[in-house]
Write a structure and sequence with these properties.
- The protein is built from 14 helices and 16 strands.
- It has a 7-stranded mixed beta sheet, with helices on both faces.
- Helix 3 runs parallel beside helix 10 and helix 12 crosses helix 13.
- The two termini are 34 Å apart.
C-alpha cells in the first residue's frame, strides 16, 4: 500500500476546513479513507478491503488496466480540444451509434451528466420553440441551476417549482397511484401525462420536452411498467414536444439484456434525445448527448457555435472506446444478466423470511430492496435501512447506500464485474443483520438458514 501523505484524522480535519460542507462524505459520522481500488473492491489506508455496491461510475471495475493503458497511451501522444480534426471522436461516435436506434445519429460530447442534460434542454427548446418541461416526481437530472429547476428531488428543498415545470406522477407500481394489480399501469400512468399536457395547453403554454430517467434511480430504483414510454411519447409529440431519455445512471449495458435501459420499453420505442454520462469514462469525466439530424439542424440554425473545451478530446474518446471494448470482451452484459438474476433471486428468498422487506425489484445490476415497517400500509422503514447500511460497512466491509423518497430502499448499482459470490456475501450479511436487529434472541448457530 502506498505511503499516506496524511493520517486519516488529518485528512478529515483538512477536508472539513477546506472543502465546502455541502459536499458530503459517505458515512459522514465515520468516513472511510480510500487509497486504492481494483475491480469491485476498495481498500482503506490500513489495507482493509471493502466490497463496493455503490460505484456505478466505475462501470467496468475500478482502475481497470485496459482503461488505464488506453488513457496513458493517448495522453502521452496527444490531448487537444475537439476543434482539431482527430480520429478518436468519430470512431467513438460511430461505435455509440451502433448501439442506438438509427435515428439517433448526431452526438455532442461533454464532461458530465449534468452538462449533457443541460444541453438536452437547450436542444429541445431550440427545436420546439417552446419552454415548458414535464418531469417525473422525485426525479434528479443534475446539479446545474437549469437542472435543479427540473428535479423535484432538489427544487422542493430549495426555491420551489417554476411555472414552466410540470410534475407527473412517478410510475411506481409498488407504492404509486396505480399498482401491480392494475390491468394496465403503463397506460394509466401515461394518461396522467396526457391530462397534465392538456392542463398546460389550457393555460396557453406549450411543452418543449418530457424528461425522464429510463429507470428512475433517486426515486427508488423504479422499474417502469411496459408501454409507458411509447404512450407518453405519443402524447408529447402530438403536443409539439420531444422525448428526452436520461441514461446517465443506467446506460452502457447495466440492465444486461439491453445496452440502454429505454430499450426495455420495446423495440418500437425511440427517444428524440438520449443523455449519457457516469459509466462512459469509468471514472474519467466523459458524457454525451445523442439526438436526431432534425433536432441537431435546428440547434445549428440558431447561428451560435457550440464548443466544449474538454468534451470529446482524444484522451476522453480513447477511454470511451476502451470501456466499450471491455464491456464486449469480458461479456459484462452477460454478467449483469446472470449475477443480477441471482442477486434478485436471493433477495426474493430473503423477502420470504423477513416481513420488513416490502419489495424486491430491478433488472440486471440495477436492483432495489425496499424496507417497510408494515407490508399492508407500506410505511417506509427508513431507520432500519440506515442501520443496515451502517452495519454492512462496519461489520462486513460492504458499501451499500439508500435511495427513494424516504431513503428506505437499499440500492445496488455495483461495478459490472460484480460476481455471484459477491451477491451471496451481501445477501447473507443483510439476512444476518435483519435477523439480529429484529429478533433480539436470535441464535446464529441454531436458526441460520442457507439461502444459497
Amino acid at each position: 500500500m502506498a505511503e499516506e501523505r496524511f493520517r486519516k484524522e488529518e485528512t478529515l480535519e483538512m477536508r472539513q476546513r477546506l472543502i465546502g460542507q455541502s459536499c458530503r462524505l459517505f458515512y459522514s459520522e465515520d468516513p472511510v479513507k480510500i487509497v486504492k481500488a481494483r475491480g469491485q473492491y476498495m481498500f482503506d489506508e490500513n489495507g482493509k478491503r471493502y466490497l463496493d455496491c455503490i460505484s456505478n461510475v466505475q462501470h467496468v471495475g475500478h482502475c481497470h488496466p485496459a482503461i488505464t493503458k488506453a488513457a496513458t497511451a493517448q495522453m502521452d501522444l496527444l490531448n487537444a480540444n475537439s476543434r482539431f480534426l482527430h480520429d478518436n471522436i468519430v470512431l467513438y461516435a460511430d461505435r455509440l451509434a451502433a448501439t442506438l436506434p438509427k435515428k439517433l445519429s448526431v452526438f455532442y460530447f461533454v464532461n458530465s451528466g449534468s452538462e449533457a442534460n443541460d444541453l438536452a434542454l437547450r436542444l429541445a427548446e431550440q427545436y420546439t420553440r417552446h419552454e415548458d418541461v414535464v418531469v417525473l416526481d422525485h426525479a434528479y437530472h443534475g446539479h446545474l441551476k437549469s437542472l435543479i429547476d427540473i428535479s423535484p428531488y432538489k427544487f422542493r428543498k430549495l426555491a420551489g417549482q417554476k411555472e414552466w415545470v410540470h410534475v407527473a406522477p412517478l410510475p411506481d407500481t409498488y407504492r404509486g397511484i396505480y399498482r401491480e394489480e392494475h390491468p394496465n399501469p403503463g397506460q394509466a400512468y401515461a394518461d396522467t401525462v396526457k391530462h397534465l399536457i392538456e392542463e398546460i395547453n389550457k393555460k396557453g403554454r406549450k411543452i418543449a420536452a418530457f424528461f425522464a430517467e429510463s429507470l428512475p434511480s433517486v426515486g427508488g430504483q423504479i422499474i417502469l411498467p411496459q408501454g409507458y414510454f411509447s404512450k407518453v411519447a405519443e402524447h408529447v409529440r402530438s403536443a409539439g414536444g420531444v422525448f428526452v431519455a436520461d441514461e446517465v445512471q443506467t446506460g452502457f449495458g447495466r440492465t444486461g439484456t439491453h445496452f440502454w435501459a429505454f430499450q426495455l420499453q420495446g423495440e418500437d420505442f425511440c427517444p428524440d434525445i438520449v443523455t449519457m454520462g457516469k459509466p462512459m469514462g469509468n471514472g474519467h469525466p466523459l458524457a454525451c448527448v445523442a439526438t436526431t439530424v432534425e433536432i441537431a439542424r435546428a440547434f445549428t440554425a440558431n447561428g451560435v457555435e457550440y464548443f466544449n473545451t474538454f468534451g470529446g478530446t482524444p484522451v476522453s474518446c480513447a477511454i470511451g472506446l476502451a470501456v466499450l471494448d471491455v464491456i464486449e470482451k469480458e461479456d459484462l452484459r452477460g454478467n449483469a444478466i446472470r449475477v443480477g438474476a441471482h442477486l434478485k433471486d436471493l433477495l426474493k428468498k430473503l423477502q420470504q423470511r423477513h416481513e420488513i422487506i416490502g419489495d424486491v425489484r430491478g433488472v440486471g445490476l440495477f436492483v432495489g430492496l425496499e424496507l417497510v415497517i408494515d407490508r399492508r400500509t407500506k410505511t417506509p422503514a427508513t431507520k432500519t435501512a440506515a442501520l443496515v447500511v451502517k452495519r454492512l460497512k462496519e461489520e462486513d466491509q460492504i458499501f451499500v447506500s439508500t435511495d427513494g423518497p424516504w431513503e428506505s430502499v437499499l440500492k445496488f448499482k455495483p461495478p459490472m464485474c460484480f460476481s455471484m459470490e459477491d451477491a451471496e456475501l451481501v445477501v447473507g450479511c443483510i439476512d444476518r443483520i435483519l435477523t439480529e436487529s429484529l429478533t433480539p434472541s436470535y441464535n446464529t448457530g441454531r436458526n441460520s438458514v442457507n439461502l444459497f
